């Protein structure tokens, strides 16, 4: 994997509180162009809070966000979009009654002489879907008639119209079947090939192992390890997620080893 030395996005010491609840504590994260970083953790680990911080929905209380090496303030969603951060949330926010073209250009309509340029929008829609190898029966069918996987790919394609440099995907394969999941994961790989940095939030370890280059684990609002996917077993990642490296079994084993060491020391005296 060839990645740039300077991360396109870097979080340094990000902390966030909600009243008395400390949701994030000194979180660090780096995203380079052309890499997929999976952000994983149990429910309540702080993944959603961190995504909202990056997306400008809930700015951090402490810490620094760097964009292409310079410090920036991301205090609202529009700022994040202007920088080049696109977020595809789990609910997709698609309009079922509109066709694919209408959804892709919702809020970004192309207007000529005060009239919607449907021909140009359809041409660009076909071009975008083709470059991403997204297969959809027609760009003029209502989104309601698409499969879950197709809807997800339309939502991801829509996020690319602003030509972002980082795309955040929130549980993109949740509730999808095997074939639809494969379709979405193929698209994630194509985003990487285009040189984008991708943050993939997922509970599915198989998906993470299939497409991620690195895995960043959050536990109780803190970093709990960053792993190279190829060099790390699924068990190690799950242990970091659950905190299994410090559980009753490992403590008992440590005690047993400690007792063994003391017996050995006594025998050597």
UniProtKB/TrEMBL annotation:
Domain ABC transporter as annotated: residue spans = 9-245
Name the PROSITE patterns on file: ABC_TRANSPORTER_2
- Pfam families named in the record: ABC_tran
* Gene Ontology MF term list: ATP binding
Q: Where is the composition biased (Basic and acidic residues)?
A: 249-259
- Asked whether the keyword Nucleotide-binding is assigned, the reply is yes
**Signal peptide boundaries:** none
Annotated region Disordered: the residues are 248-269
Q: Which domain of life is it from?
A: Bacteria
The yes or no answer to whether the keyword Nucleotide-binding is present is yes
UniProtKB keywords: ATP-binding, Nucleotide-binding
Q: Which InterPro entries match?
A: AAA+_ATPase, ABC_carbohydrate_import_ATPase, ABC_transporter-like_ATP-bd, P-loop_NTPase
Acidic residues bias spans: 260-269
Which protein is depicted? ATP-binding cassette domain-containing protein
* Provenance organism: Streptomyces blastmyceticus
